[in-house]
Each structure stands twice: as structure tokens, then as C-alpha cells.
Amino acid sequence: MAQTQWWQRGIFYQVYPRSFQDTNDDGIGDLDGIRARLDYLVALGIDAVWISPIFPSPMADFGYDVADYCGIDPMFGDLEAFDRLIEEAHARRLKIVLDFVPNHTSDQHSWFAESRASRENPRRDWYIWRDPAPDGGPPNNWMSNFGGPAWTYDPASGQYYYHAFLNQQPDLNWRNPQVRAAMHDVLRFWMARGVDGFRVDVIWHLMKDADFRDNPPNPEYGPGDPDIRRFLQTRSTDQPDVHAIIAELRGVIDEYEDRVLIGEIYLPIDRLVTYYGENLEGAHLPFNFQLIHASWSAPRLAELIADYDAAVPEGGWPNWVLGNHDQPRIASRIGARRARVAAMLLLTLRGTPTMYYGDEIGMENVPIATEDAHDPWEKNEPGLGLGRDPERTPMQWDASPNAGFTNGRPWLPLAADFTTRNVAVQLEQPASLLGLYRELIALRRDHPVLHAGTYRKITALGDVLVFLRESAEECVLVALNLAGTAQDDIPLPPGTYGRVLLSTESDRPRQERVEGHLSLRPNEGVIVSLDARG
Ligand code: ISL
Ligand code: CA
């Protein structure tokens, strides 16, 4: 087995800082709150914490509108609080990964104030300004991801500026070398402070068609779809020249030892894997969101896992993501029972797993009425179910008021079930989802084959997904029953017998010997260590 890096062996855990832990009673999580919960993360067994944006921001998109890349929003703390967090995390051997949002700034960023001041301003070209179309309308048909046209008219200078997201999030012009240099310095600023890497927001957006040609219509667009689906984003995103930009970012990352570059990319597998770079000079980990969009059936999962595993280039490292702050909670997508099987899948697949805070206790979407929405997407395109507040609710720590998240009024409501579904309760129950996560993570650590072994698809037998993880030292079989009915005839590979290392059903005996066939209960997943029959 080749020497692996920490980001290949380890497990990432995303913290949405507004909702993790509040320490000053303003109802919003903060950096001291994350620091206060580090021991929980150590006990859980994760290796790296990715924190969604904590930089000064008017919060039009909850921090994804950055007004100063080298500061901390007072809501979250200050640079001293950040340094304390890094120090205490590192003392516990936890890595800290920040969210880098290079595609756009806030419209309150001083760069944009200068840029919009006049056409002659030296920073004019730091953003994307275009003349109106002949009819005075927007320069092309590109739509905003949050509804409506992606162009906003500036009457003072008579031009439109481009924003792939809110009009308060103008896109930077990455063709401008000064922009690139300034952003490289941002990465250096944080790495010098000890940051272990970055998750790069919408990295596939950084370059746009140089001629700003229209996007083609999307034949699949239909009623109930958000505006962004009207057109295929073939000119506004995923341009061939983005890879040179990313290679430069990677070059900056590589100036420091042991740092990781993760890219957020929503693209089909064949496009996604180009973000490793032709010669692996791109992102270390282009986020793989296949499990987020998959229909949860064994044949479908078997197919997409095989497709992805085969598409990852030689020398590239795979990764899997089960949830994030933009997507409905996994427990709500597939149900509580199958969330246990999903945990086992995430932690036994080949590739670095990324978990989303609260998924380890089975947090569900919390319904938020449109009139109570905070998320600008829900406000702009109400009633289509696009809102992202439901998956951003406060972490459920214990049964005390507001789940131990805050002594104030939480910025989003707590789930109704927090007195029974919380960390404190589940830490006491080995059979809980949290108990299962902790065992899975420990098992992944103790059995290097689970993070470093090869993946071999066996088959999808009915609704049972079966695969092998193999190394020179060990062979492990994973069998996941996605059906609500028992499955009795899962054959072991010829000439082998097995010992059960772990089941999603806590009362299944450990080390149980299995020969010939494996029987699974409804929605049961097992990890079996295989040996040759002697
Ligand atoms: O939500 C989406 C995928 O289902 C896409 O519309 C969107 O491109 C993607 O979620 C991008 O997300 C990132 O950038 C946004 C920010 O609002 C998200 O929170 C962030 O994860 C703009 O910075
Ligand atoms: Ca706070």
C-alpha cells in the first residue's frame, strides 16, 4: 500500500458555524462554540473540520458573500478566537479547513465599491461588466442560481455586472491577473495562520465563456423548476480554461506542506473528474455528490459507484459526500432506517468521506414556512421547495432548552424532536445512529483496507448492494440490504468464510461466523472480514 496523505486516510466533517454552538447568547453559533465542541469531534473520530464561511459579510447568502477575505465576522469572533481554535484543534490532531469563496465577493467588498465607482476605476476590470444588449436588456441569457437574470444594471455607469448568484454577490473577473494574485495572497494569509486547506466554493464557475455567448435552452426544463434550469450552463460554467486557474491555486497550496484543496463541483462524473487536472495538478478532492442525487436502490448505487470508481484518474483519490448545507438531510431523503445503511456505505466506500454536522445523530429537515425563510433562494423563488434553511437548523446537543445550542433565541428553530434525538442521549445508547457512526469510524481506522484498499463490485442482488474492499493484508465484504424485507441468500465468494465485524443491527453478534451464504434483516448492512476456507 502506497504511503497515504492525511486527507486520504481521514474523514471530513462539515460544520455550519451559525448552527453548531453559540457561546454569547445571540442565537448564532460562533468560533468559540466550535472550539468548545472539539472534544466531541475527537470522540466521534473525525480527522478534519471544514467550516463554512466565517469572514466579514453582510450575510445576504449567510457568509457566501464575503466583504473581507482576511478577517473574521464579529458575529463569529475575531482573529484571536480563530487562532485559539486552530491551536486547540491542532493540539487534538484535528485539521481545520476553511471555505474559500473566490467566484464572487459581497457587493459590500471595497473592491466592488471601487469597481462600480466608474468605468475608469483601476478596479473596474476586477468584476465582470458588459454593455447592455441592443434593446437595453441584459448582455445575454444567463440566469442567476437564485432566480432571475444573472445581470444587474448599474445606471450610474450604464453597464451590467454579472452575478451567478445574488445581485449582492458580483462575480470576480478571474481573467484579470491582479484578481488572481490578490486571491492567492488570501490563501497564503490563512495557510500562514495554520489552516490545513480549503474547500473552494463553486470552483467550476470561476471562468466564463470569453465571448459571453448565450447558454442553450434546457430541453428538460419544466414547471416547478427553478430559473437556473431554463438553460444548460455550458457557456457560464465549466470552461476549459478554468483548469489553468485551478492549477495556479494548487501551486499556491503546494507552497505549504500537507495542505488540501477541495473543489465544490456539481457536474456529471465525466466532467467532474477533469477537475483532478490532466496531470493531477488540479483539486486533490473534487467533491463527489453522486450519493446526494442518487435514487437509493442497490442496482443504481452499484452502477454509479462502479462508474465513479472507474472514472477517477490513475493517481487521483476518490471521495464521497452524503450531505451538506445546500441539500436536504440524508435522514429525510431516505428515511431513518436506511440512514444507518447510508452511514455504513459512506464509511466503507473507497475514498475520503465527508459528513455533514448532525447527520451522525440522524437530524432531519426542519420545516420552515416561506414567510419565516432566511435563505434568499427560498425568498426569491418561493414555494418550490428550494429553501435550504431546513438542513441548517441548530445542532441538537442535549435535552436542555434549545438543545444546548444557545441560551438565546436560535436564529432558526430547533427540530421538534430534539429532546429525544440529541448527542447526549445517543452517546448513552450504543445502538443509536451516533453509536453506529463511532463504531464505523473506529473500524475504518483499525482496518486500513477500508480507507486504502481497492474496490471491487460484486453485484447488486435484488436490493442488496455487495462489494469487496481488498488489500494485500485483508479482504472485507460489505453487504447492504436497502430493502424493507429480509434477504437470505447472499453468497460469499467461493472458497471463503467470513466473520462479521459490524452490523447496522447492534444485536447481531460480533465475530459471528458466516459460511456459504449471508442472511440480512430488512435494511441491515454488515461488514464481514473474509478468509480462505482451510
Ligand atoms: O444548490 C445547488 C446544487 O444543488 C446549486 O444551485 C449551487 O450552485 C451550489 O449549491 C453552489 O453552492 C455554493 O455556492 C453558493 C452558496 O449559496 C452555497 O451555500 C454554496 O455551497 C454561492 O456561494
Ligand atoms: Ca454567538
Automatic annotation (TrEMBL):
One of its GO terms (molecular function) is alpha-1,4-glucosidase activity. The keyword Hydrolase applies. It comes from the Bacteria. Belongs to the glycosyl hydrolase 13 family. It is an enzyme of class 3 (hydrolase). This is Alpha-glucosidase. Keywords: Glycosidase, Hydrolase. Its EC number is 3.2.1.20. Residues 14-392 form the Glycosyl hydrolase family 13 catalytic domain. InterPro entries: GH, GH13_cat_dom, Glyco_hydro_b, O16G_dom_2. Pfam families: Alpha-amylase. The keyword Hydrolase applies.
